Amino acid sequence: MLDYASLKVIWWLLVGVLLVGFAIMDGHDMGVGTLLPFVGKDDTERRVVINTVGPHWDGNQVWFITGGGAIFAAWPLVYATAFSGFYWAMLLVLWALFFRPVGFDYRSKIDNPTWRSVWDWGLFVGGTVPPLIFGVAFGNLLQGVPFHFDNNLLSTYDGSFWGLLNPFALLCGVVSSAMISFHGGVYLAHRTEGAIQQRAQAWVRVTGLIWLLGFTLAGIWLARGIDGYVISSAIQPDALPDPLAKTVSRAAGAWLGNYQRWPLAMLLPATGYLGCIVAMLLLRNGRSFAAFWASAVGLAGVIGTAGVSMFPFVMPSSSHPASSLTVWDSVSSQLTLELMLVATLIFMPLIILYTRWAYKVMGGKVTAAYVRENNHSAY
Amino acid sequence: MLDNVVDLSRLQFAVTALYHFLFVPLTIGMVWMLVIMEAVWVMTGKQVYQDMTRFWGKLFGINFALGVTTGITMEFQFGTNWAYYSHYVGDIFGAPLAIEGLMAFFLESTMIGLFFFGWNRLSRKQHLLVTILMAIGTNLSALWILIANGWMQNPVGAEFSYQTMRMEMTDFAALLFNPDAQAKFVHTVSAGYVTGAMFVLSISSWYLLRGRNVEFARKSFRIAAAFGFASVCSVIVLGDESGYTVGEAQQIKLAAIEAMWHTEPAPASFNLLAWPNETRMENDWQVSIPWVMGLIGTRSVSKQIPGIHEIMAQNRLRIQSGMLAVQALEAVRRNGKDSAALKVLEAHKQDLGFGLLLKKYTADVATATPQMIDAAARDTIPRVAPMFWSFRLMVGMGMAMLLLFGWSFWASLKGDFQHRPRLLKLALCCLPLPWLSCELGWVVAEYGRQPWTIYGVLPTRLSVSTLSVESLYGSLAGFVGFYTVLLVVEMMLMVRFARQGPGSLGTGRYDNETAH
Q1: How many interface pairs between A and B have CB atoms less than 8 angstroms apart?
Q2: For residue A69, what are the CA distances in angstroms to A63, B81, B94, B341?
Q3: CB contact under 8 A, A66 and B101
Q4: Domain ranges across chain B
C-alpha cells in the first residue's frame, strides 16, 4: 500500500478534486440562482431558468456535502478549526442554503406572484451567498487566519467575524462570485434559447470580464502585498500529524515559491485565464456545451492556483504561525486515509456515470412549452 | 437560564436533530411505499397505481425538501459547535459520514431528480429502477449515519493516540459490524417504515371518511396497512431492546430506562410503573412484574442485570484509574520521552475518558478529592425519570400502532374497511404517533448517553468549540426562527395538497381537480 506521506499528498489532491467538482456541479446551479432574477423577466421565463437545473440541483448539492464529509474524515483538524473559527460565516452559508431545497420544491406549487417572487429571491440568496463567502474564506486562508491550539489541540479563534471582511478577502469573494455566475450563465446559454439565452450571454460577458480583472488584481496583490508562510523547521512528511511540532515564519512573496520550484505549476493560473477566455469565444460561436467545459476547466485553474500557492499550507495561522495547519500535520491516520481513498476510487466513477446519465435523460433545451406541458410536475 | 456554551450547544444540537428527525423517518418509509406502488403499476399497467406513485410522491417531495435543508445543519454542526469532538474522533466518525455522501446520498439525490422529472423521458421499467435506486440510497444513508451514531454509543475498533491527541481507527470492520449500529439501523429504519405507512393510512382514511377518490384511497390504504403491519412487527420484535445488553453504555441506559436502582437476583423483575426519586436514588413506589426484565434483557433466567448503584460503584473505580491516565497523559504531552508516564498511560488508557469526567470539577485532575470522584461517578448516570417515561411512552405508542395496523390489515384482507368509520377515524387520530415515538426514541438513545458524546471516551462538556455564549444565543435564535418559518410553510403546503388529494396531479381523473 501507499506510504503515509504519499497518502497525505493524494488527499490534498482529492480534497481539491472535490472542491473543483463542487464548483463545477453545484456551482452552475448556484450561478443560475444568482442570475435568476435578471435573466427571467416573467414567471414563465423564470420557470424555464429554474427547470434547467430542476432535476439536478439536489444531486449537485451532494458535492458540497461530500466535500464537507471528506474534509471531516481526512482533515479533522481543518474541519474543526475552520468551521468553528468561521462560525458566523459558516452559519450564513448554511442559512443561505436553506433557501434552495424549499425554494426549488415549493416555489411553483402555489400560483401566487408574491409567493413565487419570495422564493425567487430565496434562490438568488441561496445561489449567491455561498460562493461569495467561500471566496472570502479563501481570501482569508491566503492571508492566514488568527487561531491557535493549546497543548491538547483545542483550537481557539482569535479574530472576529468582521475581521474576515478585509479588502483582499472581499476581492477574492468578488472573483468567486463572478466565476460561479459566469459558469451558471454559460450553462443557461446551453440549456435555453431566445431571449433568456441572449440575456445569459450578456451576463457571461460581464462576469467574464470581472473574473479576468479580479483574478489579475488578486494575483498582483498576492505577489506584492501579502506575506506567505514557510515551514522553518525540518519537514517530516511521514511523521504522525502534530501541528505544534513545527515552526513557521512569514515571508514576503512566499506564496510564489512553489512556482519557482515547479514551473509547471504556472499552468494552473494560465488555465484560470484560458478557461474563461476560451469559454467566451466558444459561446460566441454557439458551441455552448464545449464552453461549459472550458469554463469548468477555468474554475479548476483558479481553485488550483489558490491551493498550489499555499501548498503545503492548508490553513496558516496569522496570530500563532506555529499552529498553522498543513498537508502534513492536519490529517487523519494512515488507515482512515487508505479506507477513504478506496471508497472514493470505487464510488466517484459510479457517481460520475449516473450523474451523466441523469443529465442525458433530462437533456435538451428547456422551453416555455416544456414548462406548460409539465405544469403540475415541473418546478 | 442557560449561561454556558456546553448546555447551549447541547440545546442547539437537540433542537436541530429533533427537528431534522421530523422529516427523515417519513422519507425512509415512504420511499418504499412508492416503490411498491410503482412496481404494481409496471406489473399490472393499471393507471391508478401510477397516479398513486405520483401523488404520494408529491407529498414525499414536500417532506424531502425539509429533510435535505435540515440535514446540512447536522453536518455543519459537528464542526461549528463540536470542534474538539471533531478533532478528537474525526478519524473514526468522519469516515462513515463521508462514505454516506459517496455511497448513498449522491445516489438518492440524483435519482430523486429523475423520479420527479423523468416520467416522460424514461420507460416504465427505467423509472421504476430510478425509484428503487432512490429507496436504496435513502436507506443506505440511514445505515452509515447509524454506524456513526452506533460508534458514539459503543466505540469499538479505535484506540487513543497520545502523539496525535485523539482517537484513531484500528479496525474498520468492527466499526461496521458494531452490534449497536446494527440494532439501531434495523430499529430506526423500521420505525421510518411505520411512519410512512401511518402517513398514507391516515390520509387515505380521511378520503374514505369523506367518500372521495374511493378507489385511489382504498388501494393506498391496503398497501399502507400491509406494509405498516409488517413494519410495526419488525420495530417491536427486532427492537432496540436486544441492543441494550451490548456494551456498557447500553447497560446504564437499560438500568435508567427501567428505574433499576439495585441489581436483583436473576431473573430481574420488570417495573411496569414507578416513581423514580433522583435524590434518594430509589423509587418512591413501583409496580413490578417478576421475571420479565431478566427475560427481556438477557434472554436467560440466570444472567444478572446490573442496577444503577452497582454501575456507579464500577464507574467510580474507573474514574480513579482514569485519574492516573489523565496525569500520565499530561506528563507525556509535556515530555514525549517520559517512559514512566507512558507506562502508566498504557496501563490505564481504557479509563482515560472516565478520568476526563473530573475536569468538570477541577482543572488539575491530580488534585481531585473523594467528593469530586463521587460526584463524577454520579454524573455517569443520566437522569432516570426522563428516560423511564420517554421509553414507556414510546413503547406504549408502538403497541397502540401494532393494534391499529393489525386491525387495519385484518379489515383490508376482508375488504370492508371503507365501511368501518371507527377504524378510519382511529387511523386518522393516530397520525402523530410515529413522529412522537421517533422523537422519544431519540431522547432515550441520546439523552441516555449523557454525560458522554462518545461513551467512556469523551465527556460532552469537553467536546464543544471555543465559542462565546453570545454566539450560541445568536445561532440558536437564528435556527429557531428559520425552522419555525420553514415548518409553517411546509405544513401549509402539506395540508393543502393532502386535502386536495390526487386532483392536484391535474389528470382529470379525480375529485378537486386543479383548474388549468
Answers
A1: 248
A2: 10, 16, 6, 36
A3: yes
A4: 5-247+383-505
